[in-house]
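Q: A reviewer asked whether we had any structural model of the full assembly, not just the individual parts. We don't, so I'm hoping you can provide one. Inputs are below.
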Amino acid sequence: MTLLPFLVICFAAGAASLLARGNGQLSTAIGIVGLAGAVIAAETIGADDRLTVGGADLIGSAYLRLFVLLGSIVAFLLALLGLVTTSHRYAPGVLLGGIGAAGLALALRDARIAVIAATAGGLLGILVTIVPPASARGVVVAGRELRALAVAGVLAILAAAWIARPLEELAGEPAVFGLAYLGFAPAVAIRFGAIPFHFWAARLADAAPEITLPMLMAWSPGAFAVVALAWADQSVAPLVLPLSIERALIVAVGVVSLILGSVAAWIQDDLEHVVGYTIIADAGIAILGLAALSPAAWEPARTWIIVFVMVRSAFAAWAVAVRGAFGTRRIAALGGWVLRAPVLALSFGLIFVAAVSWPGLVAWQARVALIDLNVDGPFVVLITAGALMQIAVFGRLLYVGLSRPSEAVVGGLSERPVWPAAMPRRPMIGQSGTERAFERARHALGGAVDVAWVVPEALRANRTPIAAALVLILSGLSLGVASGGLGVPEAARAVPGQEQGPGPSQSESPPSEPPATATPPIETEAPSVSAPPASGGSPIASEAPASSAPSASPTLLSSPSP
Amino acid sequence: MNLALAGLACIVVAGAVVAVTAREARAALLGLLVALLGAALVADPLPGPLPIAARLASAFLACRLIAIAIRDLDEPTSGSRLGWPVEAIAAAAAAVIGFGTHGLGAPGEGAAEAQAAGFAVGVLAASPIVSSRDVFRLGMGAILLLLGGLLVRQGLSGTPSELEQLVTSGLVVGLGGAVGVVIAGARAAVGGLAVRDQPARGIMPREGRHLKP
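A: Here is a predicted structure for the entire assembly that you could use as a starting point for your response.
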């Protein structure tokens, strides 16, 4: 039952905020109050919560709680950031609906319902893509977004429905499972805007408000990917099928997205485009998690998804704050921003550390594990190097920031806090102690009224430092998540109803199956369908991977043996 | 074959044919409404009264949201270049394939008629979803594509649970709202339904040096 308040708050407040959009202030107020309520409600979600509604189960889990809690906090901070920079009246409602739909999708045991919920949540993005006054560009981007959502949704619906029934007669047709897998995985790639499905996502930054980009490009597709991961782990991976061609295609999409996304982010001149392409690059790693088809990918894939959506949210917030401070998104026009905005520079450093990370950090370990599960030998080095190309992206921004100050930066807003008006002086004129006591009380009251009167103007005058502080909070949070804080690894490892997830244990006990590189090539294995994908034809649990099922986790690209 | 379900499936497909071929936007919308209403009932066993009510209400609401966006529209949609007879024949062929392959390799838990209708609606959605610059037709294609998927899902996995019907209703309303927003945006931006793409912001066309004397 603890999940219900969160869903009710998200959907009710989101709907109210969107319905009240005619009055911008009221709509924003409803949205921000709703987001604050969503944060509180998300905090109370129980890991063992279970709710049956209309013949389907909604199940709480530590991962669900962490995902929606972080999502709500990010949405709340982004909405506040929108207030002090580039507000959009639809944004709070869309953020609420998006995180609510993500929570619903992650809670549903039945993948067939979860993909419908995740698709419906994605539709909210179209509301903010066409920013009034409508432009042809916004309409084109919204049309592409609608097309991508429809195609991804139908692929996922068909794949989930195809093998969610007793499949004894399909035992001799492993191609069916391959086709279903090949339907669902590209659906995830389309939702993320992974290359080569990136045409709609690449232009989204031109049309949608900046503060909504993380929700449209990372959080909503991230929830969709988690559903897909659970579906694949439960329905396809346990069957140990010879799906090497299908997996190779998915790996190719992931690797191409990772490398070309980083290259595109490096050469872009628009900050929002840089943010968008780094999201696409990171999504490539998440897609590798889906390509692994191994229980060993369960924990790192889920860890990576939550880490990358947090880090990219912080990066998007940083870009919004930079634009708010200097009035431009062009990187070439941001010369000298580091010295002019030291708090944003500090946030940038934290985001850089969280995004690139280093060995030992949870983010690094998850990324390396997902690469290791799919490729072998020199390809590991090559793809890891591709992932580290983000150093060049951040390095370029830093180089520009340390160069000669540009006109936009010199004329931009400072981070130094200011008080808009001097407080009036009130000299004491009372003679006796009693008179002076009353006078002090009156002065204190008058001073408080003076301060309160100036607060709105002070907030307006201090937009840049407030935005910088919000970005700093988000950056710190993202670094905390990337380093394994807030119980991310435990939440990613856990499966509802089980203490241990399907991934390798943290303990010293030997794994129950040989490591990925030691397994025989997938082509040599007989197409065995010994385990039905869903017991008794019951719906596929979107949060319950097969922990005891055999695993086929061979790497696809191996170095030639001597 | 259940004749009642077959009749309903025919109505759904007919509505979809009208939705993708009619040049009059209101007629196309009416076709979509028929398809959405009929799709809720092409299931064996039939859903309970509450899920059916939710699906019907969502169909009306989705079409109402689109109707708001096309109010006072004085230009026709681009319609189908193939013409309705070709679209209808293609849909019929797809329906036969869908009916004949019911279950797609294993016994289907739902009605074969639902899968047939799903295949037909999916084929009808392909053209507008792939090639249309007309946002109205694009919207019709998107809704029909998802409707086709949901129908095939009903044929493969049986009648959806009440919660799935409720979530599906939300999806249908969301689709209607999204299509309405896109249509209204197009009319506000260019005064019509056909929108051409523009170069990305910040990328200015370069002057070709080779053209200079």
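A: Points you may want to mention in the reply: Chain A touches chain B through 58 residues (CB under 8 Å). The first strand of chain A starts at residue 50 and ends at 53.
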